Amino acid sequence: MPTNKLNLRKLMSDSGLSKEELLEAMPLLKVSGEVVGSEVEVEVTPDRPDLLGQKGLAKALRAYFAGQDEELRAGVDAVPVFQDEGTLRQRGYFQGFFVNDVTLDDDDVRRLMALQELLHKSFCRDRTKASIGLHDAAGISEIRYTTTRGDAIRFVPLGESREMTPREVLSFTEKGKMYGSLVKGDEFLFLISNNGVMSMPPIINSIETQVSPSTKRLFVDVEGIDPRTVELVTSLLVRELSGYGAISRAVVNGPAGRVVVPSLSEKRRELSVLTASKSLGIDLTPERAAQALRKMGHRVQPIGDKLEVFSPYYRFDVISEVDLVEDVMMGLGLKELIPSIPSTYTIGKRSSATSLRDKVREVLANLGYVEISTTLLSDGKSQSLVYETDPIKVKNPVSSSYDSLREGLLPDLLQALFVNKKKRMPLKLFEVGPVVTKEGNSAVQKINAAAVISDYSVSVEDIQGDLLRVARRLRLVLDVKPKDFPFAMSGRSAVFGSGWIAEISPEVLLKFGYDFPVVAFEFTVLTQFRTEIAQ
Which residues contact 446 (CB under 8 A, 6 or more apart)? Predict the structure, then answer.
């Protein structure tokens, strides 16, 4: 989980709590803290990154004990920001805002830079998904997010003493060497103001806009390839930096027109008080539930036995009613939840399905096979290479690698053989896992077991003994009958009950880039459930 070091004295001052009260209060917000000298090292859960910063944590603690969060008053800045169309080819999602009347000391600057790098390493995925820039905005009257090619622009990077071209930045600076791979081709991104170069995203800032204790006005930019990450990180920085000065949003004139960013909009949801009461096991009134939510930063309006909840802009973790129930629980405090003994008494044990799977695993592992574990979601193309059928497709897959439900384990085992083809022969792999097959208009989920052997020379006789040992362990009687399959060599395959055994066709193996003989078997261990296929 993300961790950060905060100034203990300032956190006590900003939250209005003593050291002892602070350490007792932080767990109420799912934050663990440990005092180390003049600092407190905090660890937050991934769903509450707004608590990582000095001011963000202090604001949350104040809201918890005051009973409501502070209202953010954000105006619109007069300085125009322009985004050129060329940026869309690189890192086209861009947001920015200003912070006015800033008050900083050396410790504040150091901790803001540390927070920036912490966000870069975690939520920004080492600047791959997004990157952050903090700039001294004194004297700036116009900003442009643009691109350039070649060495037309020269500037002094932060931490350097001479002007450099973009190529020199990538070759000679530490940040350039670390993040140069994020630059596409010979086109470079720049943030430029009327005073000159501000930064070369996502690599490095210019020394001209270096933030210092004398900085009175900040400009913060966040750009990247993932819109959700850009929005999330921008909102977190607004929450944190609003503790150092007054926020004003930027007017960005870009390819899509004129837009004011960030939106900082609340998210509206409804919560049934009855649902919250049943989930937590306590009787709640709308007023009591509303007060608990206000302590967690929400704005709440009771409507009969329901609550209209407006979650603040920085609470990206609130997705459904369940998240609001959790916040009610946290707002009340765990001491309000009274433990009760369950009305039924049961003893946990392995299910019969798990026992069957473990028996197969035990036999095959003892026979020298190595187990692999892959997902039910699979690449439909690789499935079709083996079975020559159309697998069940997934609506709106996140990736073409997970666009189908696999109907057998053999394709994943063949891919595993390809990955390990340089290992010493023989290769013996197996998997016990879920598959889904079509039966009419229904999809049937089953647990299959499959094993493969690959060697310089191998035949079906080399694996049939292992199949018999598995069958004996499961007390199965195998009625084996010859049958050809599209993925098997002619005359070298058979069917038994719910499974098959075969020598795999060289044509199929070559489709997977594998050129050694392979024998395999696969059968159904158990059927889990049946459901209708959505049309």
Answer: 434, 435, 436, 437, 524, 525, 526, 527, 528
Contact 137, 33 (CB under 8 A): no
Give the DSSP H/E element, type plus range, for residue 178.
Answer: helix 174-179
Query: What is the C-alpha end-to-end distance of the chain, expressed in Å?
Result: 41
pLDDT reported for residue 350: 87
- C-beta separation of 403 from 375 below 8 A: no
**Type and span of the H or E element at 433:** strand 427-439
Q: What's the whole-number mean pLDDT along residues 468-481? A: 92
In 30-84, alpha helices (H) = 54-66
Predicted confidence band at 533 (pLDDT cuts at 50, 70, 90)?
A: low
Helices in 208-320 by DSSP H: which ranges?
Answer: 227-241, 273-280, 286-295
pLDDT at 116 over 80: yes
For residue range 348-380, what is the model confidence (pLDDT) as tens digits? 888 888 999 999 999 999 999 999 999 999 888
Give dist(CA 222, CA 50) in Å, integer: 16
Beta-strand runs (E) in 255-325: 257-261, 267-272, 299-303, 306-311
Does the reported pTM lie above 0.85? Answer: no
